[in-house]
Request: fold
Amino acid sequence: MHLQYNKITNLRLAVEKLNGSIIKPNQCFSIWHNVGRPTKKRGFLEGLSLHNGKIGKDIGGGLCQLGNLIYWMFLHSELTVTERWRHF
Reply:
């Protein structure tokens, strides 16, 4: 359960960086450019992660959930998805 609570912390930290973002015409949006690398030093915690199809633990675990949500929102908007990275 602690990994689930850590995921909440990771999501809060990431959303704080994205809150208020405005995507202008012809501007490229990158969740990772805006959020940055999740590290312990920046307050991110160990959470569930997926690597090569296997469940594990990693700092920043759970941020893929945010990435998937943003991707879904873009698909249901007038924005154009030009690139997407997923788990390998």
